[in-house]
Structures are given as structure tokens and as C-alpha cells.
Amino acid sequence: MVSTIARRMGVKPGVTVSQAIGLCSPLVLLEPDPVWYDEQFARLLLALSHVSPVIEPAELGRAYVGVDGLEGLYGGPERVLAEIAAAAAEAAVAAGDLATVCSAAPAASPASAAVRLGWGRGKFTAWVAATRAKPGEFVIVADEHRLAFLAAQPVAALPLDPDTHRRLYQLGLKTLGDLTALPEAAVTSQFGRLGRLVWRLAAGLITDPVTGRETPEPITAELDFPTPIADRVILANTIDKLVERALKSPRRTGWRVHTVRARAALEQGASWLIELTLKDPSADQHRLAAPLKMRLEQAPPTGAVERLAVEFTAFAPGTSELQLFARDAQSAARAGRRKALRAAVHEIKARLKRSTLYHVIEVHPWSRLPERRYALIDYEP
Amino acid sequence: MVAPPRTPLRIDRLRALNVPRRVEVELDQRGRPRAIGDEPRQTIETVGEIWRVDDEWWRQPISRRYVEVILEGGKHAVLFEDLTTKQWWMQMP
After folding, report:
1. What predicted TM-score, i.e. pTM, was given to this entire model?
2. CATH classification of A219-317 is 3.30.1490.100, yes or no?
3. Does domain A148-202 correspond to CATH entry 1.10.150.20?
4. Domain locations along chain A
5. Which of A26, A130, A156, B82 is most buried, by CB atoms within 10 Å?
């Protein structure tokens, strides 16, 4: 991203650092911090989940909130909006430029200056409404005005790649109304399946609802000791192992642990329990086990332990949609990228009848002649 | 850079990277590049390292004088003069 002042001085996304400094000498370069963005977004989703059980993260910085039926709980659309804005403001203490889209009910007071809210029937209308809102404000699209609102929007609102947008402009189509004035079949024949989709979106025929995710049931990992154990070192090691085992549960995929507890069955029927709610939900073994072990030291069981269990009881969304940024999802991200790359190669070959993707390979990396160091070869995953 | 695939390498499908391209170079009195190109002309802001490569004398001799430059706007490039043909070429560093 480039700040407004830097953009005025000619700095554009994609220029090299030296070019940017050449154009704007007082330029300050800010390194991206994707993990921090991810954490802020997870916090926002968690806060929104306190308002509505139906939260759908779309991408980093964009989430849909299902609000059907919330009027009964909060007492009317304006109150619902206030709740959403307050939750977003609470979560976005430092969450710079997050945009929140609310579907099926409106948005709110500008409690958080950077959050933009849009309300409308269906995710597309809500998203377009949010993009029309100024930071900290909201745009409500009443159902009776939805078609007129959509028709007045620029085609840039459509989820298309820059090339397709350019083609639309070249055809003289500036607004969604211009697009829907054409027959659906004509747009479909020009742009294929994607054309049909965007025509139907522009015409307001698609009102896909917000799809929330079901929170997983508690995940438990436990161990029965053959003989009761009182040694705290062994108990601490066992907690480590049980946290590791619980994290591997397939039900945990895509979720971070918000509340974790350790419980023990003691000799003579007594029990022991510690419970922790993490300020920052995590899927990192050390970050989950360390506070449990600290509490074990501070308040150990009053007798020998026959059975020890670690339980994850509350979760925060965050990792499945944000695999690229999640600390614990690097391998999933790699697998996802490879899969996406394969699909892209397949698509390109189908369209162009040849591959336009290449590997860079070393030929003579130490050659004194730069053109002999590396070469391109067709990429075939 | 991507790791090479396991499939056997087909030399005939290789495409060279960073192939030099012809460029017109304006020299100063000391014979160092001052500007490149006719339209548009780009001034050279800084001349960096200069080195010479003589190689492959046993087949097609290569004799080049390389000059590392920074162009106006901050672009970093490498120019070389083919000392056998007296032509200038440009490459990425």
C-alpha cells in the first residue's frame, strides 16, 4: 500500500525501493507484518461472534455477519448496528484498516474510525454497500432500493480480475446497470461462466446468505497413569504431550484454542482443575502448555494423579481462511499453494492451449556472463 | 526461485533469462556512459563498478567491458560494451 502523500509524489505499488526513494526522499518504508494482521483479524472475528453466531470470514479484513433474527435480541436494526460497531471497535483497537461487511442487517455508529460497514440482502449487496461507506461509517441498502443501488454502482464493484474489468470498460460498460441492460446470454457468450455469474450478481438475482461455521465440540486428550503420579515434572511433561495430541485433532483444524483446561482425577476420588482463557487465541503448543504448567507449579494437585486430561473448550476462528498468515498452518499453506498452482496451470493450458508458466532453473549460476546463469523452463506440476 | 521439478530436463525447452538488449549509449569525455537510449533518453546518475570479461578465446571470443550504473529514477542496470563489435548492451544486474 502507498500512502496518499507518497502517491501524489509519484510512488506507485510495484516500483522498486530505490525508485520510490528517488521519487519521494522523505519516504518511510513500513515492512508488512502478516502475523499481526492475522491476529487482529482473528480478534475481530472473535468480537463479532459475541454479537452474532453466524460469522463468515471472507478474506483478511473482510467478514460477513449474519443478522437474521438479531432484532429480537437487540431491539431493532439500529441497535444491532451499534452492537456490531462496538464489537468491531473493541477488537480493532489497533486493527488499522479492517473493513467489515454485514449482511442481512445494517451497520453502525462510527465507533471505530477505520471499520466500514455495509448492510444489504445477500453478501454481494452488503459488500458493495461497505465499499461505498466511508471509514467509520455505514451504508444501508433497503431491500426495496437494492436493485436501483446495484444498477448505479461502477463495474469495478464486481469481483473480477483487472483484465476483465478493462474489457468491460472497453465495451463501454461503466455501471452494473449498463451490464444488466445487455441480455444475459450476450454477456455469457462474451465472458463465459464468469460472465453469467457477474450478470446475475449485478442484476441482484444472487443473494447468497452468510454461512457461519459451527464451533467444534470440546477436544480432550487424556492419559491414565498405571500408578498414581505426584511428581510435578512428570505431570508437566504429560501436559506437554497431551496438548500436542489435542492440537493434532482434525476437529481443531482451522480453529485456534481460546480456552484450555487441565483436569485430573486424584487418589481417593478427589479432583483437580485449572482453566485458562488465552488473551490471544493460539494453536501453538508452547503457548498453550506454558501457562498450564505455570499454574501447575502455583497450585498443584493435592494428591497423586490417576488420570490427567487436557481439554480445549472454546475456540476462535482464524486459521483456515488465513492459512498464508497463520503461524501453525505453514504446511497447509504450502499444500494449498501447490494445489492452487496446479489448478491455475490447468486453467491456463485450457485457455491458451499452451503453458505460460515457467520454472527458473540454474544453468551456470557462477558464470561471469549474466545471461548464462539462469533459464526458464515450462512449469509442469 | 522454484526448486527444479523431478521430471528430466529438456534442454530444447530452455529459455535464457536476462538476455542483453541493444542500447545506444552516450559517453562522456572519459569514455564512461553518461546517458542511454534515444527515445526516451535516460541520464545515468551514478557509475559504479567497471570490470572486463575476456572469455571463450578457444571458440567465439567474448570480450566485454561492463559498467554498473544507476539510472535517473533509481533503476539499477549493467551496461557492457562488446569490445569486438564496439556495440553497447544492457542487462539486469
Report:
1. 0.47
2. yes
3. yes
4. 1-30, 34-141, 148-202, 219-317, 327-378
5. A130
Q: How confident is the model at residue A100 (pLDDT cuts 50, 70, 90)?
A: very low
Distance separating alpha carbons of residues A39 and A35, to the nearest angstrom: 6
Distance CA A227, CA A220 (A): 21
Q: What ipTM describes this predicted complex? A: 0.81
Alpha-carbon distance of A256 to A263, in angstroms, equals 20
Q: Which of A16, A18, A370 is nearest residue B18 as measured by Cβ atoms?
A: A370
**Residue A119 phi, psi (nearest 5):** -125, 135
Q: Which residue has the cell 498452518?
A: A329
- Pick B5's closest partner by Cβ from A18, A372, A380: A380
Chain centroid to CA A83: how far? 21
Q: Report which of A373, A374, A276 is spatially closest to residue B2, judged by C-alpha positions.
A: A374
Kindly state whether A379 is in contact with chain B, defined as any CB-CB distance less than 8 angstroms: yes
Do the Cβ atoms of A359 and B5 come within 8 Å? Answer: yes
Does A27 contact B at CB distance below 8 Å? no
Q: How far is CA A217 from CA A53, A202, A210, A288, in A?
A: 15, 39, 22, 18
B74 vs A16, A361, A363: nearest CB:
A16
The phi, psi pair for B61, rounded to 5°, reads -60, 140
Tell me the domain boundaries of chain B.
20-91
**What SS3 state is found at A258?**
strand
Q: How far is CA B83 from CA A374, B44, B61, B65, in A?
A: 24, 21, 10, 7
